[in-house]
Amino acid sequence: MNALSGVFRSILNNRIPGQVVIQITDRCNARCPQCGMRATESFARSTLETDTIKRMIDAAACRGVQAISFTGGEPLLDLPRLVELIRYAGGAGIPFIRTGTNGFMLAHHEKKGFEDRVSRMVDQLADSPLRNFWISLDSAVDPVHEAMRGFPGVVAGIARALPIFHRAGIYPAVNLGINRNVGGDATRWLNRNDFGSDRAYLERFYSLYVSAFERFYQRAIDLGFTMANTCYPMSIDAAECEQGLSAVYAATTVAKIVRFSPMEKQVLFRALIAVIRRFRSRIRIFSPLCSLEALIRQYGPEHSEQSTYGCRGGVDFFFVNAADGHTYPCGYRGHEDHGPLWDMRIGRLNVPAEADACRQCDWECFRDPSELFGPLLAVFSNPLGLVRRLADEPGALATWAGDLSYYMACGFFNGRRPPDLIKLNRFSSNAAKAGSRPSLILDHNRFNQKLSIP
Ligand code: SF4
Ligand code: SF4
Fold this sequence. Notes:
Number of helices: 16
CATH class: Alpha Beta
Low-confidence stretches: 444-454
CATH architecture: Alpha-Beta Barrel
Mean pLDDT: 90
Bound molecules: iron/sulfur cluster
Strand content: 5-15%
Largest sheet: 9 strands, mixed
CATH topology: TIM Barrel
Distance between the termini: 49 Å
Number of strands: 9
Order of helices and strands: HEHEHEHEHHEHHEHHEHEEHHHHH
Strand order of the largest sheet: 7-6-5-4-3-2-1-8-9
């Protein structure tokens, strides 16, 4: 069964191609302030056995899973084993295999033998069926990123390493986990209490985050990246825990650095859309605009959750936790333990009605593909609902179709292919050409609800 016919068959059954995120270890050598797995945290670390992971891969392949991510902790702490797992997953017929790094191997680039060390690592990855590889970058300001990760000199190391990756046929994606340090001091110290009104605060917030995202994508391009992914803030707070969330993936966090109020999130996602439109002809950017628009609607004053597609976490997508090797609907729903993957009957799991589907977080790994596949599923499973949705949000279909066209121009983000700049150039916006800055248009009446600033 080739990948395309597998996708089509899944959609006819009201399912989308399965994805499993396997946390192979929760060990990490970085110091990220936003993450519960940072090296300075004291807890009993776990690493899944290689044979156990292989058994999971076999189970996933048998159940039609198409995508596996090997995450951590830091996946590259044991590179030979990681490569063995990637090869195993490819051999089992999984076409979309992803992994990435916090970049620790790229720090201290000034030391003798740096390029040889990187080449040996890259050659091992290149000689595997790995499709996508990410390298984290948390800020547009190099020293801020390096301080957050605890890796001095890593940004210059990334710049030296990327040509080595490219020569070997791997085109890494820069991975931004959105946080309040993305623009350095400018975004870090922004405080609602310094403004006389919500409106003044949000306009300043928008303008600073537009600048921060612009600087970030420009820095990524200057470093040599050809692809970018953006993780929406992975926060979880006490209120969300009360509503039933319980983080099993320690990358989810209560840290203020990634906590944004619903109103801030709306403006944050608007800023991101504006900047992506300006940059996506120059660097392949995964984040679909239809997903960002859906999140803006979800966090809007009307909380119009029904104008987003339900997340497929726990239906088609799953998370495997390093601590117990068990499967969960995602990194946030730790109270729903499905046990070992090989004991699960994924195809028999109930697909919740759209109105009951989960929308409790913004985890882009699960929310983005859910939103992208949503209209396709609705054509067969809920055509009337689709018509109603299109009537309520007439622009949504155009945004979705634009995303689809962009994904095609990006070769569906095959990280083993260089960008096709001629195709990408079709997406250069008039605003980008004219060099004009996008502005935030706030309807004050719609935005006058109380802000809850973390
Ligand atoms: S975000 Fe990643 S690199 Fe940073 S501490 Fe957590 S697992 Fe490690
Ligand atoms: S929206 Fe998706 S990723 Fe988030 S809590 Fe729900 S199932 Fe999990």
